[in-house]
Amino acid sequence: MGKDKLKRFEENKSFRCLYQPEFEEVFRADYKIKGLWHKEHFANQRDIVLELGCGRGEYTIALARKYPHKSFIGVDIKGARLWRGAKTATDEQMDNAAFVRCRIEFIESVFARDEVSEIWITFPDPQIKRDNKRLTSVGFLQRYRTFLKDGGVVHLKTDSPFLYNYTLELVKQNNLELLEANEDIYGSGRADELLSVKTRYESQFLSMGMKITYLSFCLRRDGALKEPVWDSEKFER
Predict the structure, then answer these.
(1) Candidates 2.40.340.10, 3.20.20.70, 3.30.450.20, 3.40.50.150; correct CATH number of 3-234?
(2) Which of 34, 164, 198, 207 could be disulfide-bonded to 213 (CB atoms 3.0-4.6 Å)?
(3) What is the tens place of the pLDDT at every residue in 8-48?
(4) Domain boundaries in the chain?
């Protein structure tokens, strides 16, 4: 392991805005901050917005700067990546940005019912061959339901036609409320201040001429969800 990575891991321990639960604290257990984000961390009742698979936290930080009346939490398992976001939030003394180092499979152990208002999923691995790992699959949506407010918004920003079309079909076939579906946010002129925030990966994709898609929908709490029936091979790449 490189010296820089070790240094970042050590510095991560000093960041008040970064939580790093041990495996046993989230595996079939409730983490200590669950249900207490408003009271103990942010000390207010502002809406909480999650970014799942946040990497370096570019979106979390950008959203926190743009919307000081809301609170933002980035979640990722990579500590070396989270260091960047946590350090920026600390250096800028941002009181509305936080980070959690945790596998998203355990996300319901970190947040309580109605604690989260919105979810952003930015450039996740599309997991073409492993639907149970796909962050917009029914299995993950069921997890989100345990803490997302009823009818809360899920945003997906991705370079993957496969993931975009899979999620779109899931939304349609489960009669979820589709707010927006855009197959090329830059080509269509849709990329406003919010959608034009670029992560490191997005900048790379754009430099290769790839289209960036965006989809948002409301996730209701009740009702059965089913995986979509669709021609996945058409969109695999």
Answers:
(1) 3.40.50.150
(2) 164
(3) 888 888 999 999 999 999 999 999 999 999 999 999 999 99
(4) 3-234
